[in-house]
Amino acid sequence: MSAVIESGRVAGLGRGLLVAESFGPTFQGEGPSVGQQALFIRLSRCNLHCPGCDTPETWDWSRYNPREVATRHSVEDLAAWVMSRPVARVVLTGGEPLLQQDQLVGLAVLLPGRRIEIETNGTIVPLPELVELVEAFNVSPKLAGFAAPGDRRINDRALRALASCGKARFKFVVQDESELDEVAALVDEFSLTDVWVMPEGTSSATVLAGMRKLADAVLEYGWNLSTRLHILIWEAERGR
pTM to 2 decimals? Predict the structure, then answer.
């Protein structure tokens, strides 16, 4: 991982944010805020290349043309879009939003009264000024079975910074109960709290089956279990 990526800054992005899509009002579908009304801004670009990623259009240029699946928007225009809608919660997702965190600081400043969540893979140290402005980081470290070979899926410094900032909750996407030992090792190593386990799945049947399979074991570990509410309601429909 280059020093540019490590710091959470991507050279050459210029002014504004590269956005894959924005949508809402809808419901937050995952984690502690599940079921709450929210607006979503999905940012383009990611520093990981997970084969099972459900938003490959944010990074997989072997399948997508970046000029066709991302547009640049000023923070002022994005803030105006958010502030024109009577929804308190704003979820900044990706891709990996912290690749553009310099601009996210500017956006967050323009969203007074909004409750901002940032979805991140936990590989980038957040800027202190961004930590001050957001309500929560929904951190989803990638397990070995989900990440692409060669990706730096675990960044010790970034995970420790997020764990100590006081605003992080940790959500692990799990395919099989056997992976819970790997989750436990990360929880112990980095002293993670507010831990959530969520089954992988892009259909309601798969999500429900995964929750049923994982529920008892997650209870035994003392963690929380997350659904994917948007999948249960709308399946894999985009923009929901």
Answer: 0.92
